[in-house]
Amino acid sequence: MDHHTAQIVMLVAVLAVLAVLAVVSLAFAVSGRRGASAESAGWQGPGGAGRETLAAAGALPVAAFAALACGLLAAHAAVADDLPSCLRRVAEQAPRDILLAVRPGDEELLARLVYAEARSTGFADDLRVARGIAWGAMNRVRLAEVSASARRRYGSGVAGVIFQPQQFNPAVSRRSPFAADFLCPQDAAAWRLAVEAAGRALRGHGNPLLDTAWERRHGLSLVVNFYYPHSPQARAPLAPWEGSTGLRFIGEPESVDLPPAARVRFYRLDRPPADLDPAARGPSPPADGGT
Questions:
Q1: pLDDT band with cut points at 50, 70 and 90 for residue 15
Q2: Average pLDDT, stretch 257-286?
Q3: 269 beta partners
Q4: Is the pLDDT of residue 286 over 60?
Q5: Closest Cα partner for 264 from 120, 112, 168, 115?
Q6: Angle of the 188-203 helix axis to the 48-82 helix axis, nearest 10
Q7: Average pLDDT estimate for 173-179
């Protein structure tokens, strides 16, 4: 059941509760009128205290139904507020064109990407997966801030990196099966994980992918590529660039904030960009990117 179907079901449930509430109220009103008629005909019903007890007992179902209705409405509002706007494509619109038309903030845009990419991994409920994707994307953003060649390769800024052609399929491909997740997140729990991961990566503190001495010295991570072995879009257990001279698999992550390599494989640039801004440049790391 998608988010919008759930909203309709919730509304129907609330209306049903209100209908029952109306029937119960009507029944008690009719009962009260009958009691009044009986007393006027000479029937001696319960004493005043008894009638008050019956009235209180009769009010309990009404109060219970009213509380249930309020609870359902509150739950519906909470779920609706927890998810971002659901955006729909028209014909062959690209996800990029739709998102940029509404101009979401960096956190929402990054969270949408994390949400869709995490779903494509097959482990959307794993916070470590969401965090790894968010940090990987922001590593590109921050590297591009100090390198012209990185900007050309990865894009500039959060939006530029996310919508860079041939990079993140849910954000740029009309045919991606996960473009709908990027445009219209429907799983509130997974969305909360994506928002948490995006917010942390945007703040930039505690990057678990700052592993080498060079990275720690410069505050820049060279881990900019990642691969999802269990994705339905994966053609093999290993990435196409596995074993290339420009990227090195980082191995099993040591940080508890990152997923195991069986879920996401991270790759580090063999060396930093040659045109790194002098203000950010430090001693180059060894060729293997090690300490």
A1: very low
A2: 83
A3: 247
A4: no
A5: 120
A6: 50
A7: 89
Three-state SS across the chain? CCHHHHHHHHHHHHHHHHHHHHHHHHHHHHHHHHHHHHHHCCCCCCCHHHHHHHHHHHHHHHHHHHHHHHHHHHHHHHHHHHCCCCCCCCCCCCHHHHHHHHCCCHHHHHHHHHHHHHHHHCCCCCHHHHHHHHHHHHHHHHHHCCEHHHHHHHCCHHHHHHCCCCCCHHHHCCCCCCHHHHHCCCCHHHHHHHHHHHHHHHHCCCCCCCCCHHHHHHCCCCEEEEECCCCCCCCCCCCCCCCCCCEEECCCCCCCCCCCCCCCEEEEECCCCCCECCCCCCCCCCCCCCC
CA–CA distance, 186 with 30 (Å, rounded to integer): 45
Residue 191 has pLDDT above 70, yes or no: yes
pLDDT in tens, 57-94: 454 454 444 444 444 444 444 444 589 999 987 777 88
Distance CA 88, CA 50 (A): 60
Alpha carbon 47 to its chain centroid, in Å, reads 60
76, two tokens: 């519906």
Average pLDDT, the chain: 78
